[in-house]
Specification:
The protein is an alpha/beta fold. Helices cover 42% and strands 20% of the residues. The protein has a six-stranded parallel sheet with strand order 3-2-1-4-5-6. β5, α6 and β6 form a beta-alpha-beta unit. The two termini are 20 Å apart.
């Protein structure tokens, strides 16, 4: 069990970005990485569990090492971003087959075993995997926050619409990473 009721969930940042529209996500992802790297470190320092939920790229026999090697291979568009955001040794890593970090994964039992009641989400893409994961966290009654400056999408419009939908329909708190005091959030009880 974790000492904190909070976990930082980082979605699909170990990513080659070799998909249609990936070239549009790349500049956003580079900016995201600049903010997410110190954000994840601040969360770890505060005793908050950091969980990477990452696409398995359809490689059903893969594990964390294979996914990392695949995403950082020579010539992969997202290689530098993935290398910068490599999980720390103490972080958790879950492979996912679809958009949501919860669908057909061990996310829920992991969070339950850690005593997590609040999730803070960041990653790629705001309007797909982050949106679906935050929605599913809401459906499971986790207090849910999304870090707007630690997410990436193909466009401002895609990014902003997804965040607006989460605020309006799921009650998700949307904040910038510099608006969070990780030490305070690590200890703050979740209000039901």
């Amino acid at each position: 069990m974790s000492d904190s009721p909070t976990a930082l969930i980082i979605i699909d940042v170990i990513n080659d970005l070799e998909f249609p529209g990936g070239e549009k996500v790349l500049p956003w992802a580079e900016k995201m990485a600049e903010r997410l790297l110190p954000t994840a470190e601040a969360a770890r320092k505060a005793g908050i569990a950091v969980v990477y939920a990452n696409d398995n790229f359809g490689k059903w026999h893969s594990d964390w090492d294979e996914v990392f090697k695949y995403a950082t291979r020579d010539g992969a568009r997202g290689r530098d971003v993935a290398k910068r955001l490599k999980p720390a040794k103490e972080d958790y890593f879950i492979l996912k087959p679809k958009h949501s970090a919860y669908y057909a994964t061990s996310m829920e039992p992991l969070l339950q075993s850690l005593g997590i009641q609040r999730v803070v989400m960041a990653g790629i893409a705001t309007n797909l995997c982050v949106l679906f994961s935050a929605h599913d966290a809401h459906m499971r009654e986790y207090e849910t926050l999304v870090l707007s400056d630690c997410c990436a999408a193909e466009s401002d419009n895609d990014h902003n619409i997804a965040l607006d939908q989460l605020k309006r329909f799921c009650g998700t708190a949307v904040l910038r990473s510099d608006e969070i005091d990780w030490a305070e959030l690590a200890k703050k009880p979740v209000e039901k």
